[in-house]
Amino acid sequence: MTVFSNNQLAPVLFSGGDRLRAWIESGGSPARPVVLRELRLRWSGFWFERYAAMTARRCAAIPLPRDPTFIVGLWRTGSTALHRLLTDATRWTTPRTWQCFRPADFLLTPPPSLRRVRRPMDEVYVGTFSPEEDEFATLLLGDPSLYRAFIDPRRIDELTGLLGQWREPVDLGSEPLSARWVSFLKAVLAQAPGPLLLKSPNHTFRLPWLAKRFPEAQFIWLTRPLPDVLESNRRMWTAMFERYGLWSHNPAVLEQFLQTAIRNHDELLDWAQRALPERVHLVSFQEVMQNPTILTSRLIDRLGALGSRLAPQ
Q1: Most CB within 10 Å of its CB: which of 2, 53, 210, 281?
Q2: Which pLDDT tens digit goes with each residue over 32-72?
Q3: DSSP H helical ranges for the chain
């Protein structure tokens, strides 16, 4: 996958289902054109929807566990590093990169060959089979995701409401994640049955719903000092806009978005510590970076004490 370093070069096109295509097309003509963009999106959407339906039928009977472990917290707090540490130490079931970027058909086709690419925002390399955040599957499947802003940064204001969705009454009839996301998780479990480990900073803002949807779930919540997390997020979002954005972004709007995210994060953390004290486990960025072995052992012991479900495989 080619990395583009500035807005003068063509962006990488996210190709997902019809829901994502319709959202992209509703933004009008892109400022950063992609060759055969409309044709590619419609062709991708056509096959994506058919494969997604086949996958959903194939894994419909697989039950979802009541007790996944979620890694949450703001972006750029060490969640990728912790995700890899826990996956390596436990072999718990977790989505892999190729599954997240092919959520409709990965169950229907052999896995691709191993590849490694550097992330746009840092020096971290991601491989075909690296643990990956299911948010990318959510995005491609067409569910509302803050990562839509990677594609159309102009509409980040439109997406900011997702930061406050945790304030709404939890109603399982009005769900922030659809049955398509559920089918994706079932397909992951079909390939690798076991205790389920999921990581997405975006899940932070869905946490009350997730806590009710999965009544025995545990949440590992990462924190990092505000100046560091702000600066790192400015780099991350800007790098992703440059790589995937079909339009340019406004730095002032991004700053407002990040400030809103931080306010909601802090208030949500206060709520979670009151409402779910036995299910939320705080971890600092410093612990992840400086004491990974000790931290991993402590988390496994802590989570393992909550039930045999979490015994390493």
Answers
A1: 210
A2: 989 999 999 999 999 999 999 999 999 999 999 999 999 99
A3: 18-25, 37-58, 79-90, 97-100, 135-141, 148-151, 156-159, 179-191, 207-213, 226-244, 251-275, 285-290, 292-304
Contact 73, 222 (CB under 8 A): yes
Domains and CATH numbers, the chain: 18-310 (3.40.50.300)
Q: What's the CA gap between 278 and 306, in Å, rounded? A: 10
Question: pTM score, two decimals?
Answer: 0.93
Q: Is 111 left (phi over 0), alpha (psi -120 to 50) or beta?
A: beta
pLDDT tens profile 84-129:
999 999 989 999 999 999 999 999 999 999 999 999 999 899 999 9
Structure tokens given for 209 = 């719903």
